[in-house]
Amino acid sequence: MLAEMVIGAGALAIGGFLYVRSARARLYRLLTSRLAHITRANELDLAAIATESLPGFADRFAALPDFLPAPSFALLAGEAARLAAGEQVRGPERSYVPTHKQGGTLAYETLIATAPALVACYHAQGLQDVVGRLIGVRISPTPIYDQSSLSLLVYDKPGDHIGWHYDHNFYRGRHFTVLLTLENSGRAAGDLSHALLKVRLGEREIEVASAPNTLIAFEGACVRHRVTPIQDGERRLVLSMTYCTDPTSTWWQGLARRLKDTAYFGVRALWT
């Protein structure tokens, strides 16, 4: 009797796993179709950035202020502000890891459904060309099932922050994090928030205040970084994009990525 119960429970668990995996596969086919339409219909004018002079990338880190043309930046910032305010979706998914992380996140699949301009920016060939020229290698977006491929990071509650960490690489190729600051407002008009990006480059520790329209690119697995806590009445919205030289992965890299993503997107990340 006990053996039959164990076998039955095991079969039920396997059946449930296969059902959820099948449902997620159908979702990603749908999102891939939407993605193709979004990138065709919402192409941003990024021609001006093609000729921008670029800093060096010797420390695997670079920051570019006033990156996008004003009309393109205003479109992205406006879309992000509406999402953060919960006008199109329920609002960011809040996560809290004691002593390490507190903040809100809107995942890739949510952005595909609600944020065509942000998605089009991530996939824009003009942006990929500039970032590739900056870091010195050819890059491509990471897969659609990786919720961190494209996400909107929302720091809008007192104490929102993230502690020292690396952006671990879960792919065969080199992996790069690209951040675009869309809003960084303090309590007084015109002020920046207290949220600072801090980066360790060898023996040095630098601070990046990251005014709106600052693009920051770094090789996350090699550059340790954190963001200091935000204060009451402040807000920081950042578009987080990841690119790879080879976006394929081993089975164990995929498992490690899913386990990491549960800290941001809950247990549903296990089925991605």
Can you offer a commentary on this structure?
The structure is a single chain. With 272 residues, the chain is α+β, with helices and mostly antiparallel strands. Helix content is 35%, strand content 25%. It has helices spanning 2-41, 70-84, 108-114, 116-123, 125-135, 251-265; strands spanning 61-64, 93-97, 101-106, 140-141, 150-155, 161-165, 175-185, 197-201, 204-208, 215-218, 224-227, 235-244. Strands 1, 2, 3, 4, 5, 6, 7, 8, 9, 10, 11 and 12 form a 12-stranded antiparallel beta sheet that branches. A hairpin with a 2-residue loop joins β8 (197-201) and β9 (204-208). It is globular, with a radius of gyration of 19 Å. It starts with a helix and ends in a 7-residue tail after the last helix.
